[in-house]
Amino acid sequence: MLSVLGTLPFFLYIGVFLLLPIGVLAVEAFRATDPVTFEETWSTGSITAITGGPYRRAYLGSLQLSAITAVLSAVLGLALAMAILRARRGRLLRRLVLTASGVLANFGGVPLAFAFLATIGGQGVVTAFLTDTLGIGLGGFTLQSMTGLAVVYLYFLIPLMVLTIVPALEALRPQWREAADNLGATGWQYWRHVGGPVLLPPVLGATMLLFASAFAAYATAKALVGSSVPLVTLQIADALSSNVVVGAENLGKALALGMVLLVGVVMVFYAWVQKRTQRWLT
Amino acid sequence: MTALAESVANAGGVAPGTPVRPSRRRGAGAWRIAVLLALGTYFLVPIGASIWYTVRDRADGGVTGRVYGAIPGAAGFAEAFGRSLLLAGLTVVLALLLMVPTVVLVELRLPRLRTAVELLTLAPLVLPPIALVVGVRSVLAWAPDYFYGTPVAEAMFALQRPALPWILVLVYVVLALPFVYRALDAGVRGSDLRTLTEAARNLGASWPRVLGSVVLPVLRTSVLNAAFLTVALVLGEFTVASILGFETFPTWIVRISGSQAQLSVAVSVLSLVVTWLLLLLISTLDRRRGPKESS
C-alpha cells in the first residue's frame, strides 16, 4: 500500500501536466467567444472551421510532408544501417555512424534550419558555388517550400531511423541466414520469408516514430519558412499570436486537438498492423 | 506499442556494437559504398558549408574567427543561454526526483503498473509538443479568467515570470519523460536490482539506506545518461518556449537571425558541437559500464 503511495507523485504529475492540458483542449475547442459581447458559448464553429479552407490545406500539407519524409527516411535509414552493419572491417565506421546519428537525431529544430540556410539558402555557400562558379544555379529549388522542408527534415529523421533500427537488425541471427542458405534459399527468398517478416514490425514502429516527429516539427519549419508553407503547426502558432481576430485562440485549440486526434488514429492503425504482423512470431 | 517502446530504447543514445555476420559476397559491396557516399555527402556538406559561412571573411576572402569571438558579447546571448542552462538543470533535477522512485518502485514492488507507467511516459514521444503547449496555455489562461485574486492565480502567475519561467521546467519534464524513463528502465533491468535490494534488506538495511547505498550507485550511469539527454533536449527546445512567449537560447537565435545571419549560423554550429560533446560523454559512460548492463 505504501509503495502505491510512492508512485502517486508520478501519476499526479502526469495528470496535471499531460492529461489535464489535453483534456482542456478537448473541451475548450468546443467553446466560442461572441465577437460583440465577449460571451462564451458552446459551439462546434471552430471544429467546423478547421475542416475547410486554409486549415484543411494545412492538415493535408502536414500529413503529406510527414508521410513522405517518414517513408523516405525509413528506407534511407534502413539502407544506411544495413550498409554499416554488413561492413567487413567496419567496426570504426559503425561507431562513427552510430555516434553521428546520436548527435544528428538530437540536432533538429532551430540550429538545423540555420545550417541549411547557410548551405543552400538564398545567400548559402553551396548556392553561391553552384550559381557563381558552375553557373547552373539550384534549378528552381528553394528551401522555403515543401521540397525544401523535406530535404531538411531528412537530416534528423534518417539518423533517428538508424538509431531505432540498428538494434532490430542486430537481432537478426546469422544462424537464420545460414540455415536458409543450407536449405538452398536465395538471398531474395531469405528476405522474403525470414528477414523481412522479422524486421517488419520494428521497421513499421520506427516509421511511425518518424512520422510523429515530422508531423510535430515546428521549430525547423518556423525558422525556415515563417508561415508561407501550409503546415498545421505553423497555423496553430499563427492563430495563437493573432490578437486581432476574436476566437482565434479557440481555433488554435481546435487545430491542436485535430493534431492529437490524427496522431491517435495513426497510433491505433499502427497497433492493428503490429498485431497482424506479429501474430505468427508468437 | 511495445515494439515502438523498444525501438525508442536507443533513440538519442548510442547503441552498443555487437558483432554481425560479415558480408560473404565480394561483389555485393557496391550498393553499400554508394549509400555511404551519397548519405555521407548529404550529412557532411551542410556542416562544412555552415562552418565556411561563419569563418570566411567577406572583405578580403580570408578566414577569420571574428564571428565566433563575438558570440559571448552578443546582446542577449549570455542572458538567454544562461536561462536555458538553468532550465536544463532544474528539469534534470525534477525529472529524476519524479522518475527514479517511480521506476524503482515499479520494478521492485508494483510490476502490475509497468504497462501503465510505460504508456504514459512514452506518450509525449508521439504527442505533438505544440498541442500540449496549447493545452498548457489554455490552463494558464484560467488564472485571470476564473481564479483572479485567489492564491491559485498568484501561484500560476508566479510560474510565468520571464526571468525564470518555472512553467517551462514543468512542461520540459513531460517532454523529457520518454528519454529519462527508457534510460532508467534499462539500468534497472540490466542490474538485477531485485536481488541486490533483497540482499541488502536481509542484511538489515533500512529502505532509505537501500536507496542511498544500493539503488542510486547501481543506477549512476543511467541517471547520468538521462541527465545528458534531458540537457540536450532543453537546450534545443523551441516550440514550447516560443508559444508561451519566453526567451530561451533557441528563441534568441531566431530573434537575432534577421539582423545577424552569420551570428545565428555560428551559434547553430556551436550548439551542434555542444550536443556532440554531451552525447560523446554518454557514449563514454556507456562503454565504461560493461557488457552486462549495456544489453
Automatic annotation (TrEMBL), chain A:
Keywords for the protein's UniProt record, in alphabetical order: Cell membrane, Membrane, Transmembrane, Transmembrane helix, Transport
SUPFAM superfamilies named among the record's database cross-references: MetI-like (SSF161098)
GO biological process, one term: transmembrane transport
Gene3D superfamilies associated with the record: MetI-like (1.10.3720.10)
Recorded topology in the membrane: Multi-pass membrane protein
Parts of the chain that traverse the membrane: 63-85, 97-118, 150-169, 198-219, 254-273
Compartment list: Cell membrane
Domain ABC transmembrane type-1: 59-272
Primary site of residence: membrane
PROSITE patterns tied to this protein: ABC_TM1
An example Gene Ontology CC term for this record: plasma membrane
Family label: Belongs to the binding-protein-dependent transport system permease family. CysTW subfamily.
Protein's recorded name: ABC transporter permease subunit
